[in-house]
UniProtKB/TrEMBL annotation:
Listed name of the protein: Nucleoside-diphosphate-sugar epimerase
Keywords: Cytoplasm, Lyase, Membrane, NAD, Transmembrane, Transmembrane helix
Topology term for the membrane: Single-pass type II membrane protein
Chief place of localization: cytoplasm
Length: 471
């Protein structure tokens, strides 16, 4: 019996004798073309089989139903067990935190690195401030070359410029100042620097420090301010100088006193040289200052002669420049402030009295040269360019392009009629002479006072009477 007939007998539907040729078990014959024509019929019969239906259901179940069941089951699990639900999100939070912490630690390290670099940079320069806008470099000196230097009155006008010079040489500088006429902002650009210290202290009280050199400047220098408390002024020059000499003696330091052209009083010789003994009223309104400085010079020589203290004495003539106190009542600051505000320039007397003016950087160079020289007699430091006060008022008007009028007030008591230094000794011994022309120095000072006025608004200059310094 043929195979087709056998299949037929076994009850396999849809197979007749011809179709038996397309059955896998059926060997293919050249009649395949006929067989292909029968395919639709055979496919339909194949779909209708229960196996295929099960297969389709399986595929449908696997692709559509099973994923839904898995998702729903996992939702159910996550809802039913909160602790196991937190686990995956907590670990991702931990990972995020760990990454953040790593990043933060890198940032902190970088910041520390920058801080250290900044700190090293800061330790070699000043910070720019209104009073000292230019950044000043300080070298690193080896220990044996770096000196410990005390500057009394270092927060004042001259002192703060001297501090700049010493810091820029790489020394360790300690300022002792009671801030009577000085201002912290004059030295604020050094506050961060490891070589700088400010001690707010009155020199009329003893102080114990270890220093190699002392520049002793502490003393108010403008007539209205030193006349405000004359007893204190004489104490500052006498007790203050004694205290500094005692310190110099104890620690074997060199000490320089900033004396003044005022020790010549109303001079009878002109110009004034160091061998002139002066013409000073011992009981007038200026004597607390003039006689105070004279006795301070005497003390310096007594300590030198009796105790071998190395001393230097600078007799300073009128000095001007940035950081002068705007209310100190001295002629340069008063004229400039009056001219810049269009106020009358006030001249005391007929304006025929003469003064000569040096720029502050020249004075600082002179003080430094004197300290570092072994000459221990008094030395004049000033600029011999001489002006009558009337000429000087006109000069300031011209430089400030001001329309101010010149107003003549009563002459003040004991106002010297002439003042001009003979600086031949400083030239010969120290090789020092002023370098900055008066006009150049005045231009810088005018710029400075303009900035002070921009900040302060109106300034009413201090008149001739005694007055307390204003901030
Ligand atoms: N600038 C000048 O034209 C001139 C002329 C001659 C002499 N000098 C002398 O130069 C020095 C500095 O003068 P300046 O123009 O810078 O004056 P300044 O008033 O600006 O400075 C004097 C400094 O000494 C401080 N001081 C005053 N009394 C003190 C005390 N008892 N204890 C501690 N500190 C005290 C002040 O607070 C201030 O910082 C002074 O000794 C002055 O006599 C200056």
């Amino acid at each position: 019996m043929g195979e087709a007939n056998q299949l037929k007998q076994r009850g396999v539907k849809g197979l007749d004798a011809k179709s038996s040729k397309s059955h896998p078990d059926v060997v293919s014959t050249p009649d395949n073309d006929k067989a292909s024509k029968t395919k639709p019929t055979r496919f339909l019969s194949f779909v209708s089989t229960p196996k295929i239906a099960i297969l389709i259901f399986g595929v449908f179940f696997g692709h559509m139903i099973l994923p839904i069941i898995v998702v729903e089951t996992s939702n159910f699990m996550s809802n039913s067990d909160m602790s196991s639900a937190k686990q995956p999100s907590e670990s991702s939070t931990k990972r995020s935190l760990r990454i953040l912490a790593e990043e933060e630690s890198i940032n902190v390290n970088n910041r520390m690195k920058h801080l250290i670099e900044d700190k090293m940079l800061l330790s070699t320069q000043s910070l720019p401030t209104d009073r000292a806008p230019l950044v000043m470099e300080t070298p690193r000196l080896s220990d044996h070359r770096r000196k410990k230097i005390l500057v009394t009155g270092g927060a004042g006008f001259v002192g703060s410029h001297l501090v700049d010079k010493l810091m820029m040489e790489g020394h360790e500088v300690t300022v002792v100042d009671n801030l009577f006429t000085g201002q912290k902002k004059n030295v604020a650009h050094w506050f961060h620097h490891p070589n700088f210290n400010l001690v707010v202290h009155d020199v009329t009280e003893p102080i114990h420090l270890e220093v190699d050199e002392i520049y002793h400047l502490a003393c108010p220098a403008s007539p209205p301010h030193y006349q405000f408390n004359p007893v204190k002024t004489i104490k500052t020059s006498t007790m203050g100088t004694l205290n500094m000499l005692g310190l110099a003696k104890r620690v074997k330091a060199k000490i320089l006193l900033t004396s003044t052209s005022e020790i010549y009083g109303d001079p009878q010789v002109h110009p004034q040289s160091e061998d002139y003994w002066g013409n000073v009223n011992p009981i007038g309104p200026r004597s607390c200052y003039d006689e105070g400085k004279r006795v301070a010079e005497t003390m310096m020589y007594s300590y030198k002669n009796q105790n071998n203290v190395p001393i230097r004495i600078a007799r300073i003539f009128n000095t001007f420049g940035p950081r002068m106190h705007p209310n100190d009542g001295r002629v340069v600051s008063n004229f400039i402030i009056q001219a810049l505000q269009g106020k009358p320039l006030t001249v005391y007397g007929e304006g025929e009295q003469t003064r000569s003016f040096q720029y502050v950087s020249d004075l600082v160079d002179g003080l430094h040269a004197l300290m570092n020289h072994d000459y221990d007699g008094p030395v004049n430091l000033g600029n011999p360019d001489e002006f009558t006060m009337k000429e000087f008022a006109e000069y300031i008007k011209k430089l400030t392009k001001s329309d101010s009028v010149i107003q003549f007030l009563d002459k003040t008591q004991d106002d010297p009629s002439k003042r001009r230094p003979d600086i031949s000794l400083a030239k010969r011994v120290l090789g020092w002479s002023p370098k900055v022309p008066v006009e150049e120095g005045l231009t810088k000072t005018i710029e400075y006072f303009q900035s002070v006025l921009d900040e302060a608004g109106e300034i009413i200059p201090t008149g001739p009477g005694a007055s307390k310094p204003q901030n």
